[in-house]
Hints:
Elements: H1 14-34, H2 38-48, H3 56-61, H4 72-87, H5 106-109, H6 114-126, H7 142-161
Amino acid sequence: MFPGNTQNTQPPGQTDMWQSAINYLRSLRTYADLSPDAGIRHQVNGQLRNRQSLSLEDWSQLFAEAITGDRAQLLLSFLYTKLPDYSGLKVGRLRPSDRLIEDLQLPLVCWFDWPNQLCADFYDVFQVDISEEFDESLLETLEDLVGFLHQRLRSSDSVTSG
């Protein structure tokens, strides 16, 4: 094609085919960028392997001093079942003092939108919208995450009962 020539020199449909192929290749690259890093996930799970895997009941006991109340067990059950969906990590091997970024590598082992999914799932289960308040970068440990979610439940409970 020469400057000023507005005619398409490719047969009809071929341009669309090439554009579709280019878009497909770009989407593969983007998908890889937004996907969990399987190598890091495997590495973190490997580091956790030397810990005893706790049942939900035993894992909940680790947080017994940090959270109490009617919905504490429901919250811990929620996290025990949902965190593996977001991270691929073995939650029974996680401990309250585990740092979300340094130890668990959550930004790398989770899907890019895990905070949004957590907020949506939290709303579905508890009918509490945390999407405006939740900022995972402000939470250092798993205990901080549990504490944040527990506080939002308690705040919600006091609003609905008051």
